[in-house]
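User: Quick one: structure for sequence A, then sequence B.

Assistant: Sequence A:
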Amino acid sequence: MLVVFLGPPGAGKGTQAGRLSAKYGLPQVSTGDMLREAVAAGSELGRRVQSIMDAGELVDDATMEAVVEERLRQPDAHGGAIMDGYPRTRVQAESFERLLASGRHGAVDLVLFLEVAEETLVQRLSHRRACSQCNANYHLEFKPPATGGTCDRCGGTLVQREDDREEVVRDRLAVYRTATQPLVSYYRTRGLLYEIDGAGSIDEVFSRADAAMAGAVSA
């Protein structure tokens, strides 16, 4: 089964994809995590990705497609996957369909679209922090560290990622409205879209996403 998560930055796609991944035994394919790993490695690709992310822009289609194709070749994705952060544009969606048709997955089975108000998204993202050593994630309001700016796991210093600064967050949301929002109608016309209210607690949102997932699995 192949599931795609859509929604603006900060809507909770990663959190909900992770929970559905654990419940249904499908790998969570997070392009964001893979790109950050490339940045941490300091490779030429990583440096290029870093400059794009710092500007709050989308990584180019060729780079993203290569990352996704390599990930779907791995054994744990042979039975399907939950796509977290890809596709993000109409061009990527069409390329993704061709990629799936040429491999073992066939086609997208379900698209989950998380809807959240913009000001809520700005608060969610600009309050995020990450450990500079182990990359553990925190939120100053919803998941604060036990001691100031120190990681509970390894004692490392917590930092704000460049792409989580408020001005960059607003730029990212503007890019999303232009590039990614059109995918909602693209998938709706194919009868694949399930719209989910992304407001409320993590458990409440998960209950809505799980209901859609369960319905698709049993169909």
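Sequence B:
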Amino acid sequence: MGKKYLLSLKQNIAKKNFGTKTVLTKGKEVRNNTAFINFKKNQNSQLNVLINTLQLKKKIYGLVKYADGSLSYITLTSGFFLGDYNYTTNLPPYLWYFHKPGVTVLLFFLKKFSIFNGLTVKTTSKYAKANGTFCQVLEIFEDLNLAKVMLPSGQSKVVTTLKFVTLGRCANLLSNREVYGKAGSLRNRGIKPKVRGVAMNPVDHPHGGRSNTSKPEVSPWGWVTKKTK
């Protein structure tokens, strides 16, 4: 596919950029192709067609083309294939064009035990974004506009039903069973090797030069990494 839909960014901050996928670790002059993902699918209610796919690291994204000619990347759903049509709607189920994975609808219209992905909290998608993950509706409180959903971790959470979600589960279900074979295949995906802190010297890391102590685990800059959960 052409390079005009991609943007090369330099990773020079600890956290990920808003709406992009960058390298997993910091590094000097580390560059990687990134794509801007359209998490807020409620901005465009037109029909869209999947015309191409893109894999960055372990995640698969789909390039969709809307009826007005615009293009955007979305998180790919299992069962949404090349050439298939989908859309975003806020109408009840009996007015949907088709009922299949990849359709973005309001959580209010889903039935009990329905599965979905891409649950948005505030502005961006926060739950069920990883490969093969999904959320499930446990109970809907119509009078309160609330729903009790099960997260991929197995915990339950009460969220508002006025959120757009995507039917089905995320694509690439067998990603955790993939055998890479060598370290170079991971480097091509933008994942850098990391050395454990306990294998370093005391001048290089707070964990270096020790075996067992009562001190908490910290980052290379001395921040506590494992807080109370």
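Confidence is low (pLDDT under 50) at residues 1-17, 26-30. The chain has two domains: 3-167, 195-229.

User: Thanks, that's what I needed.
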